[in-house]
């Protein structure tokens, strides 16, 4: 898998972003993303760093959201069980 394939994989499978939205996150044009994914040009080290940061932040936010969701669900289950017990 070359850099072009890796960029497209990250954008589509990990981040689930269009070329336009991905470009805005790393401050380039959609055409630049397209050129990278087609292998017509390669990103600079600075752009690769930005791509890595976007992936890390995306993963961090998903983990935070998932943790919050699990806490809410566990509290809801506790509330539901306690209300069922009090009805009987």
Q: Would you spell out the secondary-structure blueprint of this structure?
A:
Elements: H1 3-14, H2 19-25, H3 30-38, H4 45-87
Helix pairs in contact: 1-3, 2-3
Estimated radius of gyration: 20 Å
SS summary, helix count: 4
The average pLDDT score comes to: 82
**Percent of residues in beta strands:** under 5%
User: Could you say which overall geometry the principal axes of the C-alpha atoms support?
Assistant: elongated
Q: How would you describe what is shown here?
A:
The structure is a single chain. The chain has helices at 3-14, 19-25, 30-38, 45-87. The longest helix has 43 residues, at 45-87. The protein is mainly alpha-helical and 88 residues long. It is elongated, with a radius of gyration of 20 Å. The mean pLDDT is 82.
Notable characteristics:
single chain, 88 residues, mainly alpha, 4 helices, elongated
Outline:
The protein is built from four helices and no strands. It has helices spanning 3-14, 19-25, 30-38, 45-87.
């Amino acid at each position: 898998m070359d850099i072009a394939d890796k960029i497209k994989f990250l954008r589509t499978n990990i981040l689930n972003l269009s070329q336009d939205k991905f470009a805005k996150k790393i401050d380039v044009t959609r055409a630049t993303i397209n050129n990278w994914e087609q292998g017509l040009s390669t990103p600079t080290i600075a752009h690769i760093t930005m791509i890595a940061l976007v992936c890390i932040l995306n993963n961090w936010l998903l983990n935070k959201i998932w943790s919050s969701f699990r806490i809410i669900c566990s509290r809801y289950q506790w509330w539901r069980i306690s209300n069922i017990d009090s009805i009987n």
